[in-house]
Amino acid sequence: MTDRTNSDTTLMTAALTALEELLPPQWQVERAQGPAQGKDLVDEHFYVKDRSGSGRALLVDARPQTTPAELERSYTSSLARRIRADAGSPILVIAPYLSPRSRTVLEKAEINYLDLTGNARIAIDYPGLSILTQGAQRDPTPRKRPDRGIAGPVAGRIVRTLADVEPPYSVKDIAALADVSPGYCSRTLQALEREALVRRNSRGTVEEVDWPALLRRRGSAVPLFDPRRTKAYIARSGTQRVLETLAAGDDAGYAVTGSFAAARIRAVTAPVGLTVYSVQPDGIADTLGLLSAEEGSDVRLVLPADEGVFDRSTVVDGIRWVAPSQIVVDCLGGSGRMPQEGDAVLEWMIEHENEWRVPAAEAAI
After folding, report:
1. Cα separation of 134 and 154, whole Å?
2. For FRET with 149, which of 26, 44, 198, 352 sits at 20 to 30 Å CA-CA?
3. What pTM did the predictor assign?
4. pLDDT bucket at 2, cuts 50 / 70 / 90
């Protein structure tokens, strides 16, 4: 208890200083205490005053350690919304660090936040104040690997299954669809649940998946062009000729991803670099007549870390293309304008969910 109290006090002091630095000139903020406002709210508050002395209390929720799931439970339930409405004052969550997912949860709940790395979003109507700053995007002092549970090669199968198949489904169902062990699947779901990317009921059945956020999270954790698995080439007769050669050959053992795959769904600009997953990159390079190149390449062959990248791929006009969810993950983890291309495909997926997402009842469980 003493450790928690000391930790909260240190955090409050540091957050007060950080808020002072963000305020407009001649504004002030002071720390004060008042009566408790509700179950999920603390009795500490920061009192912010403008140049004229007009002020407003921000109820402070100090979180020395937290997860997106904990924040979601605190601020998105109907009970939490009623408590906030009764409190009558805006809330400010403070923490040493808030992950991008934690900030998204708070933004959706319209909760102000500030962390000690510089991430802040504060909006109050009186006195009028709007602050939005960006700090660290990764925890500068992680207690464990931040990407554990989502960055592993096999975890990609689970992420893709959760995105491609509508819930509800059990751990065994997901494990069967993704072809992974139930134990590994369970541990991965626990990690995703902590980040509020999936919601499960008391029996452990997945009832809801925030699949757009899940794909973004996977894309941010896994770079497409791992130098250990990527080789760059120049196409002698251009990338279009490479595609024609692929269409005329066997569609097994490879799949096109990246910019060209994204452009088939929703083009941002004309695709430039061709990216192909291949289980035998040296062999397909010879077949396609590619020239190895360190600079000026227009084709990159990627040896997949796991063959789950081929799951639910389709053959169109003789060419095998990865599934839309894999395109998004790969583009968001790619280079150049690929993240923008991934965003465009993700927008299409949100608009046309019934065209690509399969209900669990129709999946081969």
Report:
1. 32
2. 352
3. 0.74
4. very low
